[in-house]
């Protein structure tokens, strides 16, 4: 696994410390041109299902339950291929998970970073 797995907003300036940059949102970030994202990959299929994302609504009070449900989704067949690809990308020295979400500490990127770290 990556020596360092971080997450942050896709709108932030890129850094040489980012390593592999992977967008983990299901939809493309509003107002961002693809050329400006500087992505190595966009893994939309690793993002939470539309149903889970809508239920969560980025309400911090629901985050614990969101994390539980999302981790269960990562084990489902619909997410397995993208989750495996993300684990492959995490084999590099550094991996930065990107999201358009304003509250990154209560996002799928945070859950994925924790999940990947636990897989070491």
From TrEMBL:
<dbReference type="InterPro" id="IPR052552">
    <property type="entry name" value="YeaO-like"/>
</dbReference>
<dbReference type="Pfam" id="PF22752">
    <property type="entry name" value="DUF488-N3i"/>
</dbReference>
<protein>
    <submittedName>
        <fullName>Uncharacterized protein</fullName>
    </submittedName>
</protein>
């Amino acid at each position: 696994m990556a020596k360092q797995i971080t997450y942050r907003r896709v709108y932030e300036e890129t850094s040489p410390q980012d390593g592999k940059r992977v967008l983990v949102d299901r939809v493309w970030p509003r107002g961002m041109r693809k050329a400006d994202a500087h992505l190595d990959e966009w893994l939309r299929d690793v993002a939470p299902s539309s149903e889970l994302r809508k239920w969560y609504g980025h309400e911090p009070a629901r985050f614990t339950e969101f994390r539980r449900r999302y981790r269960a989704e990562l084990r489902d067949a619909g997410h397995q291929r993208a989750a495996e690809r993300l684990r492959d990308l995490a084999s590099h020295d550094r991996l930065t998970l990107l999201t358009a979400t304003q509250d990154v500490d209560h996002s799928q990127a945070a859950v994925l970073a924790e999940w990947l770290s636990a897989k070491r």
